[in-house]
Each structure stands twice: as structure tokens, then as C-alpha cells.
Amino acid sequence: MDFELNADQKAIQKLARDFAQGELRPHARKWDESGEFPKEIVPKLAELGFMGLTLPEKYGGAALDMVSAVLVIEEVARECGSTALTLAAHNGLCQKHIFHFGTEEQRMKYLPDLAAGKKMGAWGLTEPGSGSDASGLQTKAVKQGDHYVLNGSKAFITHGSVGDTFLLLASTSPEKKQKGITAFVVERGTLGLKPGKPEDKLGCRASDTAQIAIENMKVPLDQVVGGIDEGFIDTLKILDKGRIIIGSMALGLGMAALQASVRYAKEREAFGKPIAEFQAIQWKIANMATELEGARLLLYRAAYLQDQGKRTSLESAQAKLYASEAAIRACNEAIQIHGGYGYIKEYPVERYWRDAKLCEIGEGTSEVQRMVIARHTISGSA
């Protein structure tokens, strides 16, 4: 069992770290305060191959393994959670759905522009009345001759207002509930596709999130992605990968909180000595470091298994659950270590906490992860 990164993985880790420190760190607070999507960063991400992390070179991707993708997302998240979320949604959801389940014609049509950052990808499952329970999905797709007509709405869609290529899930067989859902790919400007205004969020404020209205939108049959009524089954496979990426984002934010805490504890003095010398602070830092290292190992294991072509529903859920909750605990402790300064925006730890909270909710809440883990464990699949 080898826990060492190989030379290529170390190189991509350094590339991502240098980029994040140079291009993201100086702007992260400003982007957070404005809540505006920083379009200017997209070409720079694309130049490094980060807009097509694991896509084959045939489609313009960087052809990285999943472990390398984890490293990139972690390093980006250490400096800007919003940018990490942008990469997670673009790479792990819209792009992956088309790559794994689309036709070769669809791959060639959509993936090169996504990998080049010329177009932003959005993926829409969640609705105002259905999130964790996909059986409550209300967007309908009715076949009429050589096309489908879609009506409904989507909520909390990353890149909902800035997206160019949308992968949308709709019910084609309502009586089958989640087993009657189909995926469709459409582009900005399609008649009946109406992106809403960006949401004003707690965290990841510079990552675009918006509702989407769908009104009598005609979609040709050749824009169905995957099989009819197989969209949700395909979605579960996509989420196995996406949850690893969101867990990596959480790890990066937790590590940023830990590093900030160590720096502050060495500089801040109380009762005549640095607070890093007090056992109460040392134990907080020890717990943070240990839990985050545990999260890292779970994420690397899940990513490694993905690279071996294995299904990782259990491993992905465990990694995402533990990493997201470990990150929140680390950010909580970081704020506590900083005391009053942790509560003001001059110090970044409060932003880390706000950004990390999304990781307990997005791509399956912690409660959903526990359902997945329990189901596998009880059934004997663990």
C-alpha cells in the first residue's frame, strides 16, 4: 500500500498551489464581499487545464487522474472556496454527465468548449420542492413528435445565471418517480430556458447560484443524454465522483482554517506568552490536524478506487461526509482560537466557515450520506 503521491501528482499539486496563492488569494475577500462571479478568472483556470481536469485530451481535457483532481480542488479551496465550487460543478457534474452518458456526437459538440472555458457548464436536478428526495421532481418532459417539451423549474443551480451549457433532469415517466427521470442537454438562448438572478448566499458568494425557469422549452431527441428514464440512475454514478470533489473542497477549507490558526496562535500572546503554548489551544490544533488527515485518507482512497474503474458509492459518501464535517469542526475551532478577531472579516476564518458549510449540504446532505453508508453497511456491501 503506497501513500506517496507520484511525481506527476506532486507537480500538479504545486501548479495548483502556486496558481491559487498568486491569482486567488489576493482577490478572494473582494469577490466574497461583492458576491459577483469573477468571469476574468475562467480563462486562467482553462489555461492550466483546470476547466477539463479529468477529460481525455481528445475533448480538450487535461486527462488527469482522480487523485490529481482532488489535489487541484484542495489547493484552490485553500485560497477561494467560491472558485473551488465553480470547478467542482463545472468538472464534476455537467461535464461528467455528458462524457459518461452522452453520445460521441454530443461529447464532440459540447466538451471541447467546456474544457477550454469558452462555455460554463450547469447541472440541474434540485428544484424548489425537491432536493434530497428526487422522487418529488416536478419538471416534466412530454414527447411530441421529434422533440420533448419541458416545463418546470430548478433551484440552487451552480452557474444558473452565467451558464452556457445546461444538463437538466426532467420526469419522462412520472408514475415511475425517480426511476422515470431523463437527462437533456440544452444551451443558453434556447427558447423557454429562463435563468433567474443570482442568489444572495451565506458562503461561496462568488460562485454563481440561481434558479432556472423552464417554460414550454422544445428539446430535440438528439439532445437526450443517456437512455430514456435512466437519468437518475446515471446521476447516482455521477455523484460518486462529485462527492469526492466536494469533499476535497471541504478538506482545502479545513486546511486553510488549520494553517491560519497555527499562524495566529504563534503570534497572539496572552498572559505573557504565545497562546500556542497553552494546552487548550494545542489540543484544538491537534484535533483539527488529526481529523483533516483522516479526511484526506478517505478522499485519496475513494479517488484511487475511481481511478481503478471501481464503483465508489460507499467510499465517496464516507469521504464526503467525514471531510465536510471535519472541515466545519476545524473552522469552528479556528474562529474560537482567533477569539473576537475570528468574528470579523479582517481575518479569513469566518469566510472559511461560511464556505465550508455548503459542503455539508451540496451534492447530498450529511443526512443523505449517512443513509447511503447505512444502506451499504446493513446490506453487507461494506
What are the defining features of this structure?
3 domains, 4-stranded antiparallel beta sheet, Butyryl-CoA Dehydrogenase, subunit A, domain 2, Butyryl-Coa Dehydrogenase, subunit A, domain 1, Butyryl-CoA Dehydrogenase, subunit A, domain 3, alpha+beta, 382 residues, single chain, 11 helices
Distance between the termini: 20 Å
CATH fold group of the largest domain: Butyryl-CoA Dehydrogenase, subunit A, domain 3
Strand order of the largest sheet: 1-4-5-8
| Number of extended strands | 10
Number of helices: 11
Helix content: 40-55%
Biggest sheet overview: 4 strands, mixed
One letter per element, helices H and strands E, the order comes to: HHHHHHEEEEEEEEHEEHHHH
Q: Low-confidence runs (pLDDT<50, min 5 residues)?
A: none
Structural domain tally? 3
> How confident overall, as mean pLDDT?
96
Rg, Å, rounded: 21 Å
CATH homologous group name of the largest domain: Butyryl-CoA Dehydrogenase, subunit A, domain 3
CATH class of the largest domain: Mainly Alpha
What percentage of amino acids are in beta strands? 15-25%
Shape: globular
CATH architecture of the largest domain: Up-down Bundle
